[in-house]
Amino acid sequence: MSTQQVQQCCNLAIIRKANFDSWYTGGGERHRYSWPRSILPRSERTAARRLAPCLASSQDQPNEIISNVLWPMESGETEENWEEIASGNPHYDGCLAQSSKRWWSSGPSELHRPEDTREDLLFVSKLEDVIVTEIAIKALKDPFGYFNGAQDLVYSWPYISFSVYRVPKDVLRLALLGPSEEEGEYSSRGMIDDFVKEHTPTYTHPRTKVKRADDSWQIHGLPDGVVGNVIVVTLWGKSVKQFANSGYYVCVEKLAMRGCPIVGNE
Questions:
Q1: Residue 48 in contact with residue 180, Cβ under 8 Å?
Q2: Alpha-carbon gap, residue 14 to 43, rounded angstroms
Q3: Tens digits of per-residue pLDDT, 143-169?
């Protein structure tokens, strides 16, 4: 990390603490860097980008693409949205209508133990350099459960880990040049594996057991000063089958990330 980035990390930490203390005691205004903001692109903007903004190691149906988990344009991430997310509210997905609900589904697996199966989800920040502060992810509750008698079926995962990478834009473009959403998004296992092998993370969060295997929001805070522009989320193990004779799946309904942009990088 450059001297400028180190200085910025320190400045942001000081500003955020000072503004929080001021807000908590009822005085002063917040600095524009005092609170994190969304760092991922909107789902409707991914089709126009030749640089794949998100990749998944597998996929089930053609319409269950990984960009579905990004925040919709109709409901931008605001502080109020994040209060809903932080509360763990399973009913909050950022969509204004139930008919607009979308998700990503892994491909089926015969095995389900964490040591046997893993799914990698790669996301590129809309900012070239950002201090990543939080990752929130929500498992999918079976949207057809009312009709097939599986109202409580949640396609969750027993364990989760994630890594943050900082990659120059020109290198990133070559490493992750993928098809546009209009051309279809398919399994990117090989592309993700190559990326992980060729780049060293600035931060790795070890595999952690998920506290609640339901569709509540799972919130993961990162330590201060984690700078990067690519985040790889790994879901370990698969908990449920859709049908008795189907394979095991994990499905993500929504994912959100926040961070503070480096000065000169907005």
A1: yes
A2: 33
A3: 876 555 566 789 999 999 999 999 988
